[in-house]
Amino acid sequence: MLKVAYDGTAYHGWQIQPNGETIEGVLNRCLSELLQEKIEVIGASRTDSGVHARENIAVFDTDTLMPPKKVAYALNARLPEDIRIQKSDEVEANFHPRHCDSRKTYEYRIYNATFSMPVERLYSYFTYVPMDVEKMREAAGFFVGTHDFKSFCNADTQVENTVRQVESVEVGKADNVITIRVTGRGFLYNMVRIMAGTLMEVGRGRLMPEDIVQIIEAKDRTAAGPTAPACGLTLIKYEFL
Predict the structure, then answer these.
(1) N- to C-terminal Cα distance for the chain?
(2) Which of 63-67, 96-100, 124-128 has the lowest mean pLDDT?
(3) What is the full DSSP assignment across the chain?
(4) Per-residue CA distances from 96 to 77, 154, 177 (Å)
């Protein structure tokens, strides 16, 4: 099992795509070269194009005699600088990260100031429109619990069940950076980015905090706010329960 951190700016997401480089593709290629066997990793979270991660999980099968903890060091020597393994370890042969009870924490960053800040541009969404953080905090509370989040899912997503459990949504501000931190047992496609986009509509005064209740009940993607840009989103933590 690998704990993988990456800057997603240059990649077309986690999952292998025919039209561009992906995190999964780079890991497969570099691991196959390192271990001299065909390696195909399984990722815990298939992050979108442009989304970052401090701690995603990947597993793979191998016949190598290399000590598991050494794989991280050897692999990092081959990986590009925007992908780094934080830890490598051995797990049970039948371990599958997407078939385990788990908790994920995402953070969405908004740079809210009169002018943009160049060093923030790759890791936060910039807006000069003032945000009411207190109203955003109030609205965030309505997301917590087990709900049908169909309104907060990409309309083209093919899933049978859109019910998800959100454990916490915290909104904070330090200097010019507003952070939205969301923890839950699982998320729909684009769910956190749509939640962030909707909370920003509350912050701008276009929605009231209590409107979140009606948006959830609508089960209609058009009822929620826009999908926030990918650059502001980072997978912070992945925990197995």
Answers:
(1) 16
(2) 96-100
(3) -EEEEE-GGGSS-SS-BTTB--HHHHHHHHHHHHHTS----EES--PPTT-EEEEEEEE------S-HHHHHHHHHTTS-TTEEEEEE----TT--GGGS-EEEEEEEEEEESSS--GGGTTTSEEE-S---HHHHHHHHGGG-EEEE-GGGS-TT---S--EEEEEEEEEEEETTEEEEEEEES---TTHHHHHHHHHHHHHHTSS-TTHHHHHHHHT-GGGS-PPPPGGGEEEEEEEE-
(4) 26, 26, 36
Distance of alpha carbon 99 from alpha carbon 226, whole angstroms: 31
- Residue 157: φ, ψ to 5°: -70, 130
Catalytic residue among 48, 61, 89, 220: 48
Question: What is the model's pLDDT at position 40?
Answer: 97
Query: What's the rounded mean pLDDT across residues 65-77?
Result: 97
Q: What percent of the chain clears pLDDT 90, i.e. is strictly above it?
A: 90
Contact 22, 16 (CB under 8 A): yes
Q: What is the average per-residue pLDDT within 159-168?
A: 94
Determine whether 48 is an active site residue.
Answer: yes
pLDDT at site 97: 87
Q: Which residues pair with 178 in a beta bridge?
A: 110, 173
